[in-house]
Every structure is written in C-alpha cells, then in structure tokens.
C-alpha cells in the first residue's frame, strides 16, 4: 500500500464494487456523516441510505448506498452494503417509480411489521437515489 493511502473495499451481496487505494472516504453513518482519512482510529458503524464518496488523486467518486456497515482497521475501510450504485448511473425514472410504489404500499396499510420495515427500507433507498442522482 502506498504511503498515506487507505485501502477501500465496497462490497454488496452481488459483487465487489470497489477495491482501490484512496485518499479519503466519506460515509453516511446512521449517527451522522463521517470522513475517514489515513490513520483513522478503528471504527465499526452502521450505514444509512445516502451518498458515499471517496477521493483518489484529487478526483471524487460518488455512490449511493443502502443500509450496511463500515469497518475501519489499520488504514483499511470496508463497506458492506445491501446495495451500491454509482451516482452517474442512477436511473431517475426507475427511482421515482420505486418511491411511488413504496409510498403506496405504506399508505395502503395493513402490513405486518416486517413488511412495513421492508417497504420503508425501499422508500428510503429510492429517496436517497433521487436526492443524490445527477439531474438530467
């Protein structure tokens, strides 16, 4: 590993999204956004749906992640997320459809507790995708 770099891994159940050496990582934690630099103290935290970004050689790359975890140990940052999608690849129309579908399901009512939680997760993910997508 190069000096003053973090080893970043972003993993979803489907694939490894990113494995790279980076200068900085910004994550949407459930207790607030966090910036992680070289020599950060060890950390384990949960993620909320939102924008995750990292900087490498002055270039910023942004993704939208859903629920998951972040672990920092010995200048390694590991992100385990249910979903991750590059901001540049978000389909706003699909995200809007997902938002409407989740809102309608919640508004209809009569859901079991686990069904309601799942519908809320889908809504929060759709809202995060819409908020951070690049406007066309």
From TrEMBL:
Q: What is its main location?
A: membrane
Q: How does it sit in the membrane?
A: Peripheral membrane protein
* Domain ATP synthase epsilon subunit C-terminal, residue spans: 90-131
Output the SUPFAM superfamilies linked to this UniProt entry. Answer: Epsilon subunit of F1F0-ATP synthase C-terminal domain, Epsilon subunit of F1F0-ATP synthase N-terminal domain
Record protein name field: ATP synthase epsilon chain
Annotated PANTHER family = ATP SYNTHASE DELTA/EPSILON CHAIN, ATP SYNTHASE EPSILON CHAIN, CHLOROPLASTIC
GO terms for cellular component: plasma membrane; proton-transporting ATP synthase complex
What HAMAP family does UniProt report for this protein, alphabetically?
ATP_synth_epsil_bac (MF_00530)
Q: Which UniProt keywords apply?
A: ATP synthesis, Cell membrane, CF(1), Hydrogen ion transport, Ion transport, Membrane, Transport
Q: What does this protein do?
A: Produces ATP from ADP in the presence of a proton gradient across the membrane.
Q: Gene3D superfamilies this protein is in? A: F0F1 ATP synthase delta/epsilon subunit, N-terminal
Q: Which domain of life is it from?
A: Bacteria
Which family is it part of? Answer: Belongs to the ATPase epsilon chain family.
